[in-house]
Amino acid sequence: MTIQQLFKTAPVTTLLLASFIGLFIMQVLTGVDANNPSTEALLKWGANALPYTMQDQPWRLVSSAFLHIGLMHLLFNGFAMYFFGQIAEPMFGSAKFLALFLLAAIGGNLLNSYVTWQSILDGTGQPGLSAGASGGIMGIGAALLIAALFKISVNGMVLNLKSLIFIMGINLVYGFAVPGIDNAGHIGGAITGLVIALAFAIAYRQRLAVALQNAAIYQNQNSHRYQTTYINQPPSLDSYSAHQATDLDTTDSRSDDTYAQSSTGTDAGSDINTTHANSITPKTPIKPSFIWQLLPWLAMLLISIGFVWWWQDIHYQILQVLKAIE
Fold first, then answer.
1. Active-site residue flag, 224
2. What are phi and psi of 226, to 5 degrees?
3. Other beta carbons within 10 Å of 293
4. What does the alpha-carbon distance between residue 179 and residue 29 come to, in Å, rounded to a whole number?
5. What is the rounded distance in angstroms from the CA atom of residue 93 to the CA atom of residue 207?
6. 163 is a catalytic site residue
7. Where residue 33 falls among pLDDT bands split at 50, 70, 90?
8. Model-level pTM?
9. Which of 131, 141, 202, 323 has the fewest beta carbons closer than 10 A?
């Protein structure tokens, strides 16, 4: 897929990839090592670090998602974003896809900070740095898992659940097996993506149910329309010929009477058919409730509020410990 095709299919994915690459190029041009950037350089460019993020620089929860620690880290996350994004963005919509990525990244960084803070309190850990889009990408992958589980299709294709589980499993196992991988960030991002995707899936199922009901109403109306047309058809040519032959065998006066009776009978039949046709009242198509369209946004709003509370809780604990030390 060319860049033009990717931008047309998934514009947010294209812009995210461009931001990852652009930020990395800017780092290298300013003297940052492309393979082993220093701690000072990472802090300068917005890495997630507990003493900074949880005190007065919460913006690092977002900025660190665009920063990568070396070229290989960038390439790995770039390819993952490329493959996941071109599927997930058309499925969820560009705005929701971007919100999903950002919230999953924040969720991963918050869980990383929480785990780090708890290990410091227990005396088993110390502050460290974390950076990369892995948390957001794991959130997108988890959302695709839910989409596959609920059989949500994109462009007529349903995702392969087993393949997605295999890919996500490899990432989690790799995180536990290789030292220096922010596994808490991966897990936090994946959990955030799962919760958000559940709201997407529930809303999708409700809209699909309404669409199926409308299709049944449309089909029912069409069948009645065809039936009414058949009932109101004029007499066949053979019936008319037989009636004409009978009239020729009778006297003129009797023919007139028969014609009058026949006309009266035809009018009565027409009235019956007209009444039958008018009794078929077309049903108005059902509109999906507006709440189902808002459900994913409401879920993400609640998650955002929860993240703000979580950050404030850790922030308050750190301040209390610092006051006690002083």
1. no
2. -65, -40
3. 12
4. 29
5. 15
6. no
7. very high
8. 0.77
9. 323
